[in-house]
């Protein structure tokens, strides 16, 4: 349906007419309200997917349909039409045409339209509708039916005879199923001021948005140009196919973009693909274009609607909306118009009752919304819920108002309006408000009472009265909105033609219909300039407007017009000739530069001399005064000023009356510049500021013209564009601004002023006081056990303020928390912190303090650790003396402290002197030291000091002097434990044996093998002061034998024998014989090999082979110890050969001895009688077959104790030391394998020496063996302490060592 106004504007609204008996007033009322004021809070009827259709009634008029039945207009539509009538200019009623575009009908009636004539004033006529059919050919040549038009004329209810009319023609329809729309034509003349800014374009209200949401901005994501081809809207008949194509250029894309197809707002079609919907994607590599297609196959009615294609790639986004229209197949040319008004979704309307989903949703719980939407096929559930939330609640019947205000009122500007409410209770107090402010009675606002009616009259309405009004009665309130419509401004009295002469004053006058109106003056169609320097002036007196030309000239001849919003008026001026005497200038005005305070004299001579004139300064007329004289004597005109001021500078003009010519000159007043520092009130022009604060120094200056100001610091010019430091000059003062003062800002600042009159300079000193710089890192020269001594230097910069003192802080190096050591300032530059923990590293730092504050902390000092020296070494004794050396040994100090022990210094002096000589320049960590380079026969004293980080301890001195003379010590060979037994190695391996010995002076060492000296070419021997090394790079069996080592010191000799055995693979057995063959068994016998490889034979390996093949040998048994065996489980019928390998510790022999004869296994029928045997009782009590032997061990080298026991059942083995069971001691490891019991002692010390016992226990008895273990080469006291040996055991060990040494 389309509604056309008289002036041709329209608003399109879908969904007005629903069927032949009902129509939808929601869209019409919403469109009208949006046209009147898009942002006005007029309540709208809710719009949902199931719009409420009002039944027709006969209250408000009638309308006749195509079949002659009477159609009725409901009250809502009448209210909308009333709102349209209020929008007409001057409040005049307007005739409206309602044209309903529907499907063509078979009736051949023509539509009725208005002919532009005034209707007869016979009273209001009912609305009539006439249906006509019209056929027009279309472009493709086929004949289709043009939509018919139904014209409706509405006569204005007002009694005014002036009625405006207009027509609107229907737009061309696409087909017979065109969607019905309503358009409302609105006036298109010049809008008044109150309506400017309103939207005059078409307002379209679709199915998915409520009317009140039309003007709200829609939040769309930012679009980009991804789509190079967008899908276009299309139509398809039911059952046909259609394809929508979208293309994306992939030239700048690294991967394929994501494309989604939607129907409506949020239905994703990716999950709906199937028989009727298919999505396809292709990519053309040459053009690099992605093509996305959506195929709809065999379209149905419900496929129609709005679709959307969205393309996303990373942060880019693009979308396109398009529509799909599904048409029904036309069965005949004549289509029932009723079917066009029926909703397609109600095809079975007669059988199925209509369901009001809106009411169901309002009464349902929120968790049931999705279920209801799915049940009734609602796709736009989100939009439906959003509109339901905005829907105004049903208002309860008011208890205070019997009749409330209308939603909106409209009045012309300057008119009067009455706002009327009717009270249910006349005694209730009533208050009126305008935009929330209470209205008081005034001549403009008049309040009236008529019974229960309360009336507010607003007189002389203006644009300020365009507002929201409310009335409060008790606790209830009703509101309305008043729209003030401005009327066009009309020209009541036009401009009259004017004739004048040159140099005359002209006034053009016109009169408009309203005061305060804006008009525009034009000359020859061009707007007249009315600025300050213009010859034209305008003035306004009430409704009269004037254009004034003070001094007319021939150039002012032309056509003048005035324009207002209601019309224009023109006036013509006629050329006039005027004869005047020409003006001659004998002496013109001269430009002058005058010093401030000096007199000014301007004069000129003109002809004729009797012509008066006027003096102007900068365009302003000059009047005579006490200090200013204007003199006219004949041809001379003078202007004199006694004392010049700055205001006297400017352009002076003398204008003779009656002439357009004028004389002018320029007066320039100058004043030397000056800096007024006395206003600062700073002593010696010195400004003191604290660093970090903002400094703004404003200094008054004077001078004319305004002097050029330059700020300088040294040779650097301070600019006004600086960030932190900048200078500014404005008016009569200049300023220096330092945003954040710093130390570098200290100094003298020079101000230089220059202008035409001279130059002036001044200087200002700026002093920036600050906290002092942090001192340098303090020094810690002396460190004690719990104290230290620290010194530091004062800071290099004291902040321009004397240093008052210092704060000291300290912290542990690993900590981050500093602790203040003094709360009173320290004046000196030294300090001694105390009460520190020994062994903990500390750091200290310093703060300097002046009158401004505390400086930043200094850098921490180097980390220092309070340490104390150790106690003196203990038990200093002489260990060895030679002709040139003395060896002493001692024990570590009893008290070492947190500083630890770095080593020892050994000093000596000749007996009878105090000249101590340092023997070792570098500290030694050992507790034994040999002093060399001594004179034989001299006596010396020796002392030892312990050294750590804190320094040297008190010395430990020998009680008696030592005679430097060597003492003979008998030799002693200490054979290692593993060399006390036979030392076995394989052929080809390396032999490297170290045999330690002792003796003084250096012993003589000799080696003998089987009575002959050892050949150096076969065996390498190297001797030192304390050991002898025998080395064989590649051992051979010839190296086997017993080696005798002899150590000799003078007449003392000690010997030791070392047995070396070099072993090799054995030879094969000498003879292998088949002794007997019976059944599946063969008895073999062989003799041991001739060459055992210099090692005992540990076993034999027997193999067999079938005579048929003799290729593959099979092992029958390995590691067999005897020289005879019976091979069983042989295969009957086979003939076997056998061979035997011998084996020793090096492995199997390289060759095997084979039987000369073969053994044939023959099947026999004899049965062997197995004799009966009695089981032997193998149980026996424990018995040691190999006892423990006394062993000597070297301290620091692992030692093992071995024995073997036989018992059945297996016995429990217990090891004991000094009759104490060894249990869970990590220094011991115990093994038991095949009756061999082993105890391993890890790195024994002399403390580990003693009696060891091995006890075996089972059910039949027990047995034990014992041995003595002696550990030689013990540890020092310090080493035993490091190993964690208890002090009482260390003392016991030391005493035993003394006894052993004394025995020796």
UniProtKB/TrEMBL annotation:
It comes from the Eukaryota. It comes from Gambusia affinis. One of its GO terms (molecular function) is actin binding. Keywords: Actin-binding, Cell adhesion, Immunoglobulin domain, Muscle protein, Phosphoprotein, Repeat, Thick filament. PROSITE patterns: FN3, IG_LIKE. Interacts with USP25 (isoform USP25m only); the interaction prevents proteasomal degradation of MYBPC1. GO terms for biological process: cell adhesion; sarcomere organization. This is Myosin-binding protein C, slow-type. The keyword Phosphoprotein applies.
